[in-house]
Amino acid sequence: MDAGSLSAFFQHTRAWGRAQRGIELFQLAADAMSQLAAVDGGFFIYRKRGVETGGEPQPPAIYHRFGVFADGPISPSVETLMCADLALGVPTGRWLLVEDVAHEELHSWLTSLSVLEFGVWPLYSREEVRGAMIAVRTAPVVHITWETSHALMEACAAQVSLALDMIMAVRIAEHASQRDLLTGAWNRLGIERRWPRVLEAARADCSRHAIVGIVDIDHFKRINDTYGHPTGDRVLRLVAQALQDEAGPDELVGRMGGDEFVVIAWSESPDWRPRMLSMQRAIRERSRGTCGVSVGGSVFGLDGDSFEDCYSAADARLYENKRWRKEQGESPVS
User: Fold this and answer.
1) Same domain, 167 and 224
2) Where does the record place the GGDEF domain (predicted)?
3) Mean pLDDT of the 114-121 span
4) Among the three residues 155, 177, 199, which one is the final residue of a domain in this structure?
5) Which of 28, 209, 211, 304 is deepest in the core (most CB within 10 A)?
C-alpha cells in the first residue's frame, strides 16, 4: 500500500470515531471506498444488536446502498442468500471477477448491473462475523495496484468493525446509565429518554390511552429502621419485579428514587385506575400481604400534555389514595 493512499485513508477515517449510529459510519466508509479505492457501488450487511434485548443479534439486514446499488431493488435471491450466509457464499477478503461467482442468481443480478469485479469483506464484532461490506467495480482499474486496492479494502473493513464496536460500547454505557442498579428498572433519566416514544405511539394509535402511574411503598422508612436496609432492598426489588411482571412489553417501569416507582402503561379506556389498582393488588399478593403500596395515576391528553404535568397529576392522586387507605386502615385491593 503506497504512502499517499495510506495517508489519505487514515485522514478520512478520523471522522469515523465521531459517528453515533451505524448508518452514519456506513456512509463515511462508502465515501472512502468511492474516493480512494475506485469502488463504484456497494452496501453493508449487518446483524444489529439490540441493547435493550440483552445484545442478542437481530436478523441480518442491508444498510446504505450506494453507487450502482443506490437505485432499484435488491435481488430477492440475494436477500435469501444473505440470511443463510453473511458472505453471500463467496470467498471473502478479495476481489472476484463476476464470471467467477458460482451462485447463479447472484451472478445474473451482478451482470445485469454491468458489474465486472465483486468483493465481500467480513465485519467482525467480538471476534465473530457480524456482517459484511459489499463492493463492486463496473470498469477496469488502472491507477491503483492490486496490493493497494486489497490493502485499502482490508483496512476499511477493519476500521468499520472497530468503529461499530465503539458505537455499541457507547450505547451499552448509555443504556446502563439509565437503569437503576438495585432493581433493574429504568431510572428517571431512562424514563425521560423514552417518553418521546410514548408520545409518538400515543399519537399514532388513538384506540388506546397512555397512563402515567406512581407507586409508593407503605412505611418504607419503618421497614429500613426496623429490619435493616438489606430487607428494604429486598422489598424494593420485590415491588419492581411485580410491576415489571404486570407491565406489557411496550410499557415502562422506573424507580424515580427512594421507594417511589413510575409506570408508563396503556389502557383501552381513558381511566388510569384499572391498571394501577391491578398492580397494587399484584404487589400485595406477591408479598403475601406483607407489603402494601399507594398508587396514583393520570391519563396523557386529559391530565396533561407533558410528562411533568401527568406526573404531577398522578402524584396528587397518589396522596389521595394514601389518605383514603389510612382512613380505611387497610389497602384497597378491590
Assistant:
1) no
2) 208-334
3) 96
4) 177
5) 211
DSSP annotation string for 135-151: EEESS---SS-HHHHHH
Instruction: Identify the DSSP state of 99.
Output: G
136 and 16 within one domain? yes
Phi, psi of 218 (to 5 degrees): -65, 135
Predicted structure pTM score: 0.74
pLDDT at position 330 = 58
pLDDT digits (tens, 9 = 90+) for 28-46: 999 999 999 999 999 999 9
CB 77 within 8 A of CB 109: yes
Range of the domain at 226: 188-328
pLDDT bracket for residue 334 (50, 70, 90): very low
* pLDDT for position 145: 85
Which positions ≥6 away from 36 have C-beta within 8 Å?
Answer: 5, 8, 9, 12, 152
Rounded CA-CA distance 277/293 in Å is: 10
Within the chain, strands assigned E span: 41-46, 61-67, 95-97, 117-125, 128-137, 209-217, 252-257, 260-267, 293-299
